[in-house]
């Protein structure tokens, strides 16, 4: 069993994230979902709320734990401090790869931390946290796209 770290802001977590993290747990056995905060982003949910939604989402899944990543930590250093040398990132499309590949290369060069990419299921390629928030802001139904914890946070739990 190898510990891998799956970092992200998860604002909010959606079914595309869930699919990647679930697959990573099956492949590697142990996944740390590291909920990050980026001061350059405007968040809909606080760090504590995002952690709580992810924890509730994965409470049923063996080998997955969720925690907030320290705000002052370099991601590669954080991964190593957890006893890992591998990150998992999900890819929806070529734009995701173009964004993620330079960061993966930098992390490998500065710390030896590798990044493994998992291609997301085509069922979720259109899905992003931004789209979920946009649809919900107009009272659109997001229940097919997010776990129950997020449905509850948006007041859409059936």
UniProtKB/TrEMBL annotation:
<comment type="subunit">
    <text>Homohexamer.</text>
</comment>
<protein>
    <recommendedName>
        <fullName>Phosphopantetheine adenylyltransferase</fullName>
        <ecNumber>2.7.7.3</ecNumber>
    </recommendedName>
</protein>
<feature type="binding site">
    <location>
        <position position="17"/>
    </location>
    <ligand>
        <name>ATP</name>
    </ligand>
</feature>
<keyword id="KW-0460">Magnesium</keyword>
<dbReference type="GO" id="GO:0005737">
    <property type="term" value="C:cytoplasm"/>
</dbReference>
<feature type="binding site">
    <location>
        <position position="9"/>
    </location>
    <ligand>
        <name>substrate</name>
    </ligand>
</feature>
<dbReference type="GO" id="GO:0015937">
    <property type="term" value="P:coenzyme A biosynthetic process"/>
</dbReference>
<dbReference type="InterPro" id="IPR001980">
    <property type="entry name" value="PPAT"/>
</dbReference>
<feature type="binding site">
    <location>
        <begin position="90"/>
        <end position="92"/>
    </location>
    <ligand>
        <name>ATP</name>
    </ligand>
</feature>
<dbReference type="GO" id="GO:0004595">
    <property type="term" value="F:pantetheine-phosphate adenylyltransferase activity"/>
</dbReference>
<feature type="domain" description="Cytidyltransferase-like">
    <location>
        <begin position="5"/>
        <end position="134"/>
    </location>
</feature>
<dbReference type="InterPro" id="IPR014729">
    <property type="entry name" value="Rossmann-like_a/b/a_fold"/>
</dbReference>
<keyword id="KW-0808">Transferase</keyword>
<comment type="function">
    <text>Reversibly transfers an adenylyl group from ATP to 4'-phosphopantetheine, yielding dephospho-CoA (dPCoA) and pyrophosphate.</text>
</comment>
<keyword id="KW-0547">Nucleotide-binding</keyword>
<feature type="site" description="Transition state stabilizer">
    <location>
        <position position="17"/>
    </location>
</feature>
<dbReference type="InterPro" id="IPR004821">
    <property type="entry name" value="Cyt_trans-like"/>
</dbReference>
<feature type="binding site">
    <location>
        <position position="89"/>
    </location>
    <ligand>
        <name>substrate</name>
    </ligand>
</feature>
<keyword id="KW-0548">Nucleotidyltransferase</keyword>
<comment type="similarity">
    <text>Belongs to the bacterial CoaD family.</text>
</comment>
<feature type="binding site">
    <location>
        <begin position="124"/>
        <end position="130"/>
    </location>
    <ligand>
        <name>ATP</name>
    </ligand>
</feature>
<feature type="binding site">
    <location>
        <position position="75"/>
    </location>
    <ligand>
        <name>substrate</name>
    </ligand>
</feature>
<dbReference type="Pfam" id="PF01467">
    <property type="entry name" value="CTP_transf_like"/>
</dbReference>
<feature type="binding site">
    <location>
        <position position="41"/>
    </location>
    <ligand>
        <name>substrate</name>
    </ligand>
</feature>
<keyword id="KW-0067">ATP-binding</keyword>
<keyword id="KW-0173">Coenzyme A biosynthesis</keyword>
<keyword id="KW-0963">Cytoplasm</keyword>
<feature type="binding site">
    <location>
        <begin position="9"/>
        <end position="10"/>
    </location>
    <ligand>
        <name>ATP</name>
    </ligand>
</feature>
<comment type="pathway">
    <text>Cofactor biosynthesis; coenzyme A biosynthesis; CoA from (R)-pantothenate: step 4/5.</text>
</comment>
<dbReference type="GO" id="GO:0005524">
    <property type="term" value="F:ATP binding"/>
</dbReference>
<feature type="binding site">
    <location>
        <position position="100"/>
    </location>
    <ligand>
        <name>ATP</name>
    </ligand>
</feature>
């Amino acid at each position: 069993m190898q510990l891998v770290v799956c970092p992200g802001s998860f604002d909010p977590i959606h079914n595309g994230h869930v699919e990647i993290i679930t697959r990573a747990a099956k492949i590697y056995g142990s996944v740390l979902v590291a909920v990050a905060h980026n001061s350059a982003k405007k968040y809909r949910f606080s760090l504590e709320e995002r952690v709580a939604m992810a924890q509730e989402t994965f409470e049923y899944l063996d080998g997955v734990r969720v925690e907030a990543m320290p705000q002052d930590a370099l991601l590669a250093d954080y991964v190593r401090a957890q006893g890992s040398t591998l990150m998992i990132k999900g890819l929806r499309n070529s734009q995701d790869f173009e964004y993620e590949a330079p960061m993966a290369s930098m992390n490998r060069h500065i710390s030896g931390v590798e990044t493994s990419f998992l291609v997301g299921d085509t069922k979720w390629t259109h899905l992003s946290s931004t789209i979920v928030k946009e649809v919900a802001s107009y009272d659109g139904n997001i229940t097919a796209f997010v776990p129950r914890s997020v449905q509850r946070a948006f007041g859409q739990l059936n």
